[in-house]
Request: fold
Amino acid sequence: MKNYIKGILLGFICGLVASMLWVIVYVYVGFISALCAIPIAKGIEFGFKRTNANVDKKTPYIVATLTILIVLTVCFLLIPIFMLFKYGYNVNLYNLNILYQDGEFMSALIKDSLISVLFAFLGMWSVIKQLKLEANPEVYQEQLRLQNEYNETIKDIFIKNKSFTKETGIPQDEINVMMKEHPELLRTWMTLNQRGLIKKAKKSFYYYPSLKDSKPKTKKIE
Reply:
């Protein structure tokens, strides 16, 4: 329970740190920076896990609550404070109250906060999905097992075809057929492609780095 409370507190602090780019861009660059709210949930997750707090079924709801709380804190407290500091005013309750009474300023702030909540939830979606898996160890382990199996299966395809360079790539038409026959591999393929392990050369694909000396660990797709 002690680690759980520490996890919530450190998660909140790390989420605030992750929101600083958003504050700086909004105040000093001068345009809506709602996209910068996306990393908040990741910051919360990082802080929560740093305390070795137990990830359970309540954790995703904690992350969601802290995300909303941080967005509201940034919009209605940190941004006004930074605005006062930027224009050389003393940061105190009196000057903050003057800002809060400025209808135009508050209207813009409320509008930006709604947009920021939307983007924060976009960033939170993948974090919550991962936490839900971790809260169910059996499901999480099975997910990892399948992910590793799909990784190895795709690697084995390149090993079988000796496709390690642009000149020896697998034609895109063959890859399209394979993905239609084995749609469960598509997500893993896209991940490997984003990580730069699968390279595209004109109308073919090859694996990088070279796997010439690797041995297949799972059954190949014929």
Summary: The chain has nine helices and three strands. Residues 103-134 form the longest helix (32 residues). The two ends are 52 Å apart (CA to CA). The CA atoms of residues 44 and 184 lie 31 Å apart.
